[in-house]
């Protein structure tokens, strides 16, 4: 799989999750796609759904250490790409060193609804530009893949 440098863990600004003081998430869809795609490219997507699989055989110790190392990397990708006000539950999850799957599940369940104020602002910006926000996500994904190709 190779080494992953710190700079490779940081997404471009338009793929970073923003959480405001009220716990509302902004750019959630782009962030989810970016995290899932990055981990899939590193063959680590199972860390988003599995806490730690049961490992049998002589290689149990080495395999378990590798899983833990990979899980730390997944947790880093998830947390380093969040900006704004970290809610208390997120701070607690990070402090408790919860596995990536638990953190990912919490992120999906808490504060997922974008406020109506944000929706109104998005609609206003869309009318001003005449190029709808629908074009932003595919462009963001395309740029993300171009960056990842260089890794």
Labels describing this entry:
single chain, 151 residues, mainly alpha, three-stranded mixed sheet, 7 helices, 3 strands, globular
Task: Write structural notes for this entry.
The chain is mainly alpha-helical and 151 residues long. It has seven helices and three strands, in the order αββααβαααα. The chain has helices at 6-9, 28-41, 60-80, 88-95, 100-109, 116-129, 136-149; strands spanning 17-19, 25-26, 82-84. Helix 2 runs parallel beside helix 7 (136-149) and helix 3 (60-80) runs parallel beside helix 5. The protein is globular.
Instruction: Find the count of extended strands (DSSP E, 2+ residues).
Output: 3
Structural shape: globular
Distance between the termini: 11 Å
> Biggest β-sheet, characterized?
3 strands, mixed
Give the oligomeric state of the chains in this entry, treating copies of one chain as homo and distinct chains as hetero.
single chain
Helix-strand category = mainly alpha
Number of helices: 7
- Helical coverage, percent range: 55-70%
Topology:
Blueprint: H1 6-9, E1 17-19, E2 25-26, H2 28-41, H3 60-80, E3 82-84, H4 88-95, H5 100-109, H6 116-129, H7 136-149
Parallel strand pairs: 1-3
Antiparallel strand pairs: 1-2
């Amino acid at each position: 799989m190779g080494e992953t440098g710190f700079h490779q863990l940081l997404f471009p600004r338009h793929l970073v999750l923003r959480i405001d003081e009220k716990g509302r998430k902004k750019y959630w869809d782009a962030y989810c796609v970016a995290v899932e795609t990055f981990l899939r490219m590193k063959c680590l997507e199972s860390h988003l759904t599995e806490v730690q699989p049961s490992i049998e055989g002589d290689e149990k110790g080495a395999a378990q250490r590798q899983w833990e190392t990979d899980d730390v990397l997944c947790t880093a990708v998830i947390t380093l790409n969040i900006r704004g006000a970290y809610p208390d539950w997120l701070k607690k999850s990070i402090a408790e060193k919860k596995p990536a799957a638990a953190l990912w599940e919490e992120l999906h369940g808490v504060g997922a609804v974008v406020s109506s104020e944000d929706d109104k602002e998005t609609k206003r910006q869309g009318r001003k530009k005449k190029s709808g926000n629908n074009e932003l996500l595919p462009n963001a994904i395309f740029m993300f893949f171009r960056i990842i190709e260089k890794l």
